[in-house]
Amino acid sequence: MTADSLTAKDAGPGPDVPKDPGRSPRALARARRRLAAARFWRSYRSHRAGLWGLGGLLVIALVAICAPLLVGSDSQSVTHASGGPLAPPSGDFPLGTDQFGRSVLALLVYGSRVSLTVGLLAAFLCVAIGTVVGIVAGHFRGWFATVLMRVTDWFLVMPTLVLAIALATVMSRSIWTVIIAIGVTTWPTTARLVRAQTLAVESRPYIERARALGGGHLHVMLRHVLPNVMPLVLAQTTLVISNAILTEATLAFLGLSDPTVTSWGGMLQDAREAGAVSAGDWWYLAPPGIAIALVSLAFTMCGRTIESVLNPKLGVAR
Fold this sequence. Notes:
By secondary structure, the protein is an all-alpha fold.
């Protein structure tokens, strides 16, 4: 199964869709989407790595959503801390405590909320910018597309982390600053991929037929090009999320995030400032680092599996 089979709206109803002359075009389109989704899931679930990654993400998302029920709503408060400073793991505190006596497990659970939110929103912003730039640069030719791609190349060769640090430094320290800093500095790769796919789509005969029938630029880009690049965008999004989570952790570790919220990168920064590294308080350092690695790995496994499903030529091992 390829990306074209998932989104080819201009093709016939296909062998799996009943050819009922009384069905409207919209009904046929919905039937094709349902069949494409069913075929996609059948192919996806045959990859064990993708299932493990998806299962891990569902568990982490459930923990993040149910954080107040699992660890209490006041577990982040310094005034309500009931443990000793930097106490090792015990029955009451399975992952020990921080320098204020708060449970590291509770902080880890609440930190998943911020890290996942920043990763998802930053990835959405990155993919949205990259998709728009890629489709526009691939659809329009001439000097306008050349200027867009030269700007893309400039962002591509510049160190992403350095640009993100520069933006986070000049802007106010908040979660939205981190999201914007990550989103506006990591879109060039997506733009390049989408532009290449757009050029391939626009070379097909049905694009020429749409233009001959009077379809304008907006019609071609939204009704024909965008549906055909969406599978690529979906696969790219899952890969971008893991990079966004890692970048957020880096910015928080450098003290450029909002100090009033709990995130995994912020926990590492607090552990460094509390002297956990020199004191050997591993229970304060290891959990957030392992959580960042596991979430990034889960998103990467899902992304690689989606790529394998949409493009079987990649030959990703099951």
